[in-house]
Amino acid sequence: MYFCIDFFDKMTHSYDDLVVTFESNLRKLMDDFKSLQEENSLLRERLSNKEQDVELLKAKFSELQKNYDHLRIAKTLALSDEERNRSKQQINKLVREIDKCLALLLND
Q1: How far apart are CA 51 and CA 22, in angstroms?
Q2: Residues 98-107: pLDDT tens digits?
Q3: Domain carrying residue 64
Q4: How many domains does the chain have?
Q5: Is 43 inside any structural domain?
Q6: Torsion over CA of 49, 51, 54 and 56, rounded to 10 degrees?
Q7: Where are the alpha helices (DSSP H) in the chain?
Q8: What is the 3-state secondary structure (H, E, C) of 5-18?
Q9: What is the rounded distance in angstroms from the CA atom of residue 29 to the CA atom of residue 37?
């Protein structure tokens, strides 16, 4: 009978230790889970902020690209005006030379 009581005491003690260990491990797992949830939430928030930054940068890039295209077109038009003025000057010069030639021919 002593053996049974001693064995029962040891088993009860062993079960108590197992329950305590299990509870301790469960608390640790729950704490770890909570920490991971908080970290996950923080990472999701950071990701959302980065995605917003990317969208803002895309919009800014698009606007800058449009401005660049407008400047390039404006520069092309400005060069066209300059070329047009140069051509006008050359035509005027040719007309003056023709006028001189006509005047010389008429005087002779």
Answers
A1: 42
A2: 999 888 888 8
A3: 1-80
A4: 1
A5: yes
A6: -60
A7: 2-107
A8: HHHHHHHHHHHHHH
A9: 12
Rounded Cα–Cα distance for residues 51 and 45 (Å): 10
Q: Which helix (H) or strand (E) holds 108?
A: none
CA distance 15 to 11: 6
Q: Which two tokens stand for residue 86?
A: 């140069």
Q: Is 66 contained in some domain?
A: yes
Contacts for 96-103 with beta carbons within 8 Å, 24 or more apart? none
Q: Output the CA angle 17-18-20, nearest 5 degrees.
A: 65
Q: pLDDT by residue (tens digit) across 13-54?
A: 688 888 899 999 999 999 999 999 999 999 999 999 999 999
Q: How far apart are CA 59 and CA 53, in angstroms?
A: 10
